[in-house]
Amino acid sequence: MRPRYTLQVNILFVGDVFGSAGRHIVHEHLGHLVETNEVDLLIINGENAAGGFGLTPSIAEEFFDMGAHVITTGNHIWDKKEIFEYMTVPEDSHVRGRRVIRPANYAVGTPGFGMYEGELPTGQKYAVINLQGRVFMSSCDDPFRKADDLLTQIAEHTAAKVILLDFHGEATSEKVALGWYLDGRVTAVLGTHTHIPTADERILPHGTAFQTDVGMSGPFDSVIGVETELVLKRFLTGMPGKFEPAKGNPKICATLIGCDGATGRSHSIQRIMLGE
Question: What's the rounded Cα separation, in Å, for the pair 200 and 210?
Answer without folding.
Answer: 8
